[in-house]
Amino acid sequence: MEKKKIKKIGILTSGGDAPGMNAAIRAAVRTCAHFGIEAVGILEGYDGLINGEFITMGPRDVKHIINQGGTILKSARSKEFRTEEGRKKATVQCKKNQIDALVTIGGDGTFTGAKVFFEEYGIPFIGVPGTIDNDIFGTDFTIGFDTANNTAVEAIDKIRDTATSHNRLFFVEVMGRDAGFIALNAGIASGALGIMIPEKKDSIDDLFELFEKAKRSGKTSNIIVVAEGDELGSVYDLAKVTKMKYPEYDIKVAVLGHIQRGGTPTCADRVLASRLGYGAILGLIHGKTNVMAGVQSNKLVYTKIEEAIKKHNEIDKELLELIEILSI
Ligand code: F6P
Question: N- or C-end of the chain: fewer Cβ atoms within 10 A?
Answer without folding.
Answer: N
